[in-house]
Design a protein that fits this description.
5-stranded mixed sheet, 3-stranded antiparallel sheet, 2 domains, alpha/beta, 283 residues, 8 helices, D-Maltodextrin-Binding Protein, domain 2, 19% strand
């Protein structure tokens, strides 16, 4: 009996040690950020638009081949996605440009940073009534987005077309209606919600449609007559927390976007140069 009792106690002790080792091993497999997230898991905060879809279809499969597990966290607004990054409940977002990220950091005190530039759908000048920019005429109507950021981009596109000029010293990243110096064709420039511009394309002569809205609405790309020349701060970037920029998973994301496999995927989906592709991603 004594031998049996000692043997049983020994087995229980071994079991306890084994269990403890298992717990320690389990904890070691988790990230040390307090979230319990596995080191091989990438939590992606997505928001509506073509960029999250491009990630899921073209980049996620590459990461999964490399052994990463991708968790998608859907948000209805980009600001919510950035808040998730800030609060460390998500790791990555691919729906914003540098200007938006910088503004979010400034307004919230966040410390978000970019990993790499990624493909971007530029704003475009569209028309269902005209076939050429040379058909511009006095008094014609132009729809532009009403939110400040996209209004600025739309006016810069009209400037690019040669249809307006802006006052000397105007910041190219924040052109406002009052910054227009000359409107030689007396264009009727109408601001409205971006979501309504594609629907009302037949009601105006010209319309400037943001890239993500053109994608979401399915507007015929053949109606695009001019595409914006993107400023560096308006090129989309993959975004995370500053302290994650040099992590293994972050480097894997950058490598995936710059891989031959992703380049081949994108080539088959870039008819008419719909996507602007940064130099780092070109093959």
């Amino acid at each position: 009996m004594t031998i049996f009792t000692h043997h049983s106690r020994a087995l229980r002790a071994i079991a306890a040690v084994t269990a403890s080792a298992g717990i320690v091993a389990g904890l070691a497999a988790c990230a040390d950020d307090g979230t319990g997230k596995s080191d091989d898991t990438i939590r992606v905060a997505t928001s509506p638009g073509p960029y999250s879809e491009l990630f899921q279809q073209g980049v996620q499969p590459i990461l999964e081949k490399d052994g990463y597990k991708v968790e998608i966290k859907d948000f209805t607004e980009l600001q919510q996605a950035d808040t998730a990054l800030q609060e460390n409940t998500a790791d990555l977002n691919v729906d914003q440009h540098t200007a938006y990220m910088k503004n979010f950091n400034k307004e919230t005190g966040a410390d978000l940073a970019s990993l790499t530039q990624i493909p971007t759908v530029p704003s475009g000048l569209y028309s269902s009534k005209h076939k050429d920019l040379k058909e511009i005429a006095d008094g014609q109507s132009v729809s532009v987005p009403e939110d400040a950021s996209n209004t600025s981009r739309a006016l810069r596109l009209l400037k690019q077309a040669g249809w307006i000029t802006v006052k000397p010293g105007t910041d190219e990243t924040s052109i406002r209606m009052q910054d227009i110096a000359d409107n030689p064709h007396n264009l009727d420039i109408r601001t409205m919600d971006s979501a309504f511009i594609p629907r009302g394309l037949d009601d105006v002569d010209w319309a400037v449609i943001p890239g993500s809205m053109a994608y979401a609405s399915g507007v015929d790309q053949k109606l695009e007559l001019l595409q914006e020349e993107l400023l560096p701060d308006l090129i989309l970037v993959a975004v995370t927390q500053q302290d994650q920029v040099d992590s293994d998973w972050a480097k894997a994301v950058t490598d995936a976007y710059r891989s031959d496999e992703f380049a081949d995927y994108l080539k088959g989906r870039n008819e008419g140069n719909y996507w602007f592709v940064p130099d780092d991603l070109k093959k």
